[in-house]
Amino acid sequence: MTETTSVFDSDREAGFGDYVALLKPRVMALVVFTAVAGLVVAPGSMNPIIAFAAILFIALGGGASGALNMWWDADIDRLMRRTQKRPIPSGKLTEGDALALGVALSFFAVVMLFLATNLVAAGLLAFTIFFYVVIYTMWLKRTTPQNIVIGGAAGAFPPMIGWAAATGGISVEAVLMFALTFAWTPPHFWALALFVKDDYANAHVPMLTVTHGRDATRKHILVYTLALAVVALALGLTSVGGPIYMAVAVVMNGWFILGAIRILRRDDAASHADKHLAERKFFKLSLYYLFLHFGALMLEAGLAPYGLGGW
């Protein structure tokens, strides 16, 4: 199937799962989880049906971003082993299919979030889609090794959008939830980049591991991990924090810092000898890191009415 042919003219008809894959469901799951956290810990109450609708539209906005990302990055996805099975590189869908789906879902998600909640939440969702697609995907990703640092803001907005959907505004707590995800993104992706460096090099993506090498990347991971710990503890001192969250933050950030130090002390020879075992463990830990922090915030909010959560 050629890139300009519609899937309906192809011998390989696309299935529903191929369209779902365009939305990057794993990334969407993170968007949904952090957005739910922002909505749940926000002060006040929200109609459950409206809350569900808000999360649904935020999720669709995240999926739209994923589809537009796959549309633009189809050329480099064909060159990277970990992305070659995506719907476009595998020939199941075309760039045009991804573009159409992404644009349609973007408008639908933003308009419906506005109708269901408020202008602030809808505006933040629209800006998030724009930032991820235009600022990160089209510009930063292929031009600077700081792509993940700056571009990480796109993935950090969902908890702020959830908060805005519930309250109609933004607060210190919402900003710190944004900052938590923002500071977490570089060490999370750089750990991945350490053991898939060749993928990025083959696709000519200027990831830090490609432009500055693995040693520099390891140093950057430690620096950002330390900054992340500061943000995590600061969030625990706000109105959404509490003893449960602080216990999780202390343990997880101590563990995360130790993991970053272990990576820093390694060299390429040691990494290759055990197939980047420490880097892979750190990457896996980073997935639990965000889940446990936001989960603890929601637990604090759930226990607060009973006098068991919060400060």
From TrEMBL:
The chain crosses the membrane at residues 27-43, 49-72, 93-115, 121-140, 147-168, 174-196, 221-238, 244-264, 285-308. Its main location: membrane. Its EC number is 2.5.1.141. It is a multi-pass membrane protein. The keyword Zinc does not apply. The keyword rRNA processing does not apply. One of its GO terms (biological process) is heme O biosynthetic process. GO terms for molecular function: protoheme IX farnesyltransferase activity. It catalyses: heme b + (2E,6E)-farnesyl diphosphate + H2O = Fe(II)-heme o + diphosphate. Pathway: Porphyrin-containing compound metabolism; heme O biosynthesis; heme O from protoheme: step 1/1. It comes from the Bacteria. Keywords: Cell membrane, Heme biosynthesis, Membrane, Transferase, Transmembrane, Transmembrane helix. One of its GO terms (cellular component) is plasma membrane. It is found in: Cell membrane. Converts heme B (protoheme IX) to heme O by substitution of the vinyl group on carbon 2 of heme B porphyrin ring with a hydroxyethyl farnesyl side group. Interacts with CtaA. Carbon 2 of the heme B porphyrin ring is defined according to the Fischer nomenclature. Belongs to the UbiA prenyltransferase family. Protoheme IX farnesyltransferase subfamily. This is Protoheme IX farnesyltransferase. The gene is ctaB.
